[in-house]
Amino acid sequence: MEINNYLPEIEREPIREIIKFQENQLCKLLAYLKEHSPFYSALFRNEKINPDKIKSIEDLHHIPVTTKNHLQKSNEAFICVPKEKIIDYITTSGTMGDPVTFAMTDKDLERLAYNEAISFVCAEGSRSDIYQLMTTIDRRFMAGLAYFIGIRKLGAGIVRVGNGIPELQWETIHRIHPNAIIAVPSFILKIIEYAEQHDIDYKGSSIVKAVCIGEPLRNNDFSLNTLGRRINEKWPIRLFSTYASTEMATSFTECGEGHGGHHHPELIIVEFLNEHDLPVKEGEPGEVTITTLGVEGMPLLRFKTGDICHHFTEPCKCGRSTMRLGPVIGRKKQMIKYKGTTLYPPAFYDILDNIEYISNYVVEVYTNSIGTDEILIHVGSRSPIDEREKDIKDHFRARLRVAPLISFKTTEAIQKIQFPELSRKPVMFIDNREKK
């Protein structure tokens, strides 16, 4: 299949045709799970569910949701193929608990490559691009591998530099002249800072765009958030936001319109559920709940990701009629009840990123002596801390009406917390609350 400039036909179809297609694929998935999945075949028996009677997406509410706890407790029971068919083992990052292993077959890797290839095309990519990969491809990490095989399928060039080491990133840019980078947004700020400190003409470099992973770039109205604005104020390259997880093996990537990540309906069914596992209306926040299509090794049925998002169904100007996913508001397990206010960590990040003298930070939440949530923000500052605490708290009161506790540390100490040994992602949030 020619991937270059490829827009799948199903993504241009009316919603009714997309639903019809997905329901056909859902029936195939249920039959496959009944025959091959120890976990789901047991679920169907125990809940007295006849999967043959599930014919529509609306019928899915008859099936209990799957959670991260199920994956952690019964990891191997989700595997649907004999070990000799497994050619790659991947694990989740363990951000919200023990890591989970995913077994991938050759067919699964081909699906993953296809997903990334059409996602890069969505982000205005083509075979004429050269991408510099600033995320790790080792340590059982799916994202780096997915980007690599997706770019190969697209037919574009790729430079596998990995994460960190700003000096090597700039040496590679000057040597090979890639026009695009794939990076965590906060790391883009670090390479900008390195360039400024070493008189590197980064604005005159070959880079014109960035595909961003792991951190939100936009507010709920799709305007750039503080992190996105800080990057663009320094370096006016095009920013494309993505959302994905190991469990879904699918990504939601922005097109040039920048109005949400596009759904690939040939690869995944998406529901948005409230705390009672009921669908929310468009415009209401809901937990992203996915059913994977075309996965052979470890398909998932109604898996609740823990991510809270808005969704949008109006067709996009880019020609796609598929649903679009808004920025992640927060993770369900990271929700904080603080002095009568419900908060998610990204709200803190957006404020802290907007305070110029803060170099880096980590947000910690713990249970205080009266049994309620307490928030402590560890801050690394470029300037003396005199009177800075009041200023930071005033920023929080102005935006959130509440102010957390502040602890000042050296930027080096914060960096050690953010990047523990073997970590694949920067640690920005630490949850030390007592388990209930």
> Which structural category fits the helices and strands?
alpha/beta
Number of helices: 11
Would you identify the CATH H-level superfamily of the largest domain? ANL, N-terminal domain
Please report the first level of CATH classification, the CATH class of the largest domain: Alpha Beta
CATH architecture of the largest domain: 3-Layer(aba) Sandwich
Spans of at least 5 consecutive residues whose pLDDT stays below 50 are none
Task: Compute the average pLDDT.
Answer: 89
Trace the largest sheet across and list its strands: 4-3-5-6-7-8-9-14-13
Indicate how many domains the architecture comprises. Answer: 2
Walk me through this protein's architecture.
This protein is of the alpha/beta class and 436 residues long. The chain is built from eleven helices and 21 strands. The longest helix is centred in the N-terminal third of the chain and has 22 residues, at 15-36.
Summarize the structure.
This protein is α/β, with parallel strands linked by helices and 436 residues long.
Topology (SSEs and partners):
Elements: H1 15-36, H2 38-46, H3 68-73, E1 86-91, E2 101-105, H4 106-122, E3 130-133, H5 142-154, E4 157-160, H6 166-176, E5 180-183, H7 185-197, E6 209-212, H8 226-234, E7 238-245, E8 250-254, E9 261-262, E10 268-273, E11 286-292, E12 303-309, E13 311-312, E14 324-325, E15 330-331, E16 336-338, E17 341-343, H9 345-352, E18 358-367, E19 373-381, H10 388-400, E20 405-409, H11 411-418, E21 429-432
Parallel strand pairs: 3-4, 3-5, 5-6, 6-7, 18-21, 19-20
Antiparallel strand pairs: 1-2, 7-8, 8-9, 9-14, 10-11, 11-12, 12-15, 13-14, 16-17, 18-19
Helix pairs in contact: 1-2, 4-5, 6-7, 7-8, 9-10
